[in-house]
Write a structure and sequence with these properties.
Elements lengths: L3 H4 L2 H31 L4 H29 L1 H23 L4 H16 L2 H9 L7 H33 L4 H32 L6
């Protein structure tokens, strides 16, 4: 069970919710895009993997500097980047509907990876900052657990929705992908609202970096 100090910490609860919805949404996003490219566009699995490799490389680069940006701008960094990721999902939706070429998907994946580098570690640091003295281990453990639970539920839900749409119309891969992307966008929107709420909270209690 969680320490009462953790459940009573607005910064920790909101930060955990940011991570929970972000993590599930991003993993589901990559899954939907991969399924669409392989099944809907006929690309080889290695080509679909190349798209995700672009995301991974961009995330590695962004992670190296993400903590510096977060240290300077605080929660504002997470707010801006989650909003940017929602725009990336919109870009994917447009790319799916217009059957964009592979370079477009690679570019969108790279942008998504950059977003991840500026959200994951910075949000973790900002969240654990609000955990009580002596409770950092429990706080970090539950933060990781929440992400794993989110990934499990979100992947099952979004993949199920994608397959369900195809069961209705086996040729409408764009429609199936769009349905999955819509769920990802909704989850990211909740993550954004939680980040905004924590930003306002931090402003109210006078944090040096917001």
């Amino acid at each position: 069970m969680l320490l009462p100090e953790l459940t009573g910490s607005g910064g920790y609860v909101l930060g955990t919710l940011v991570a929970l919805f972000w993590f599930g949404a991003v993993l589901s996003l990559n899954t939907v895009v991969s399924l669409y490219l392989i099944e809907g566009r006929g690309y080889a699995a290695v080509q679909a993997a190349a798209v995700l490799s672009a995301a991974a490389a961009a995330m590695a680069v962004a992670s190296a500097m993400g903590w510096r940006v977060a240290a300077r701008y605080g929660r504002v960094t997470v707010v801006v980047v989650v909003a940017a990721e929602i725009a990336v999902v919109g870009g994917y939706a447009a790319a799916v509907q217009h059957e964009a070429t592979m370079p477009v998907f690679v570019a969108l994946a790279a942008l998504s990876g950059l977003s991840g580098g500026f959200v994951d570690a910075p949000n973790r640091a900002l969240t654990l900052e609000s955990s009580p003295e002596g409770g950092h281990g429990v706080a970090a453990g539950f933060l990781q657990l929440s992400q794993r639970l989110s990934a499990t539920v979100a992947l099952a839900a979004v993949s199920g929705l994608y397959l369900s749409a195809l069961a209705t119309d086996g040729d409408d891969f764009a429609g199936a992908a769009s349905a999955g992307l819509a769920v990802c966008a909704a989850m990211l929107s909740v993550s954004l609202l939680c980040a905004l709420a924590d930003r306002r909270r931090r402003a109210g209690v006078g944090f040096r970096s917001l």
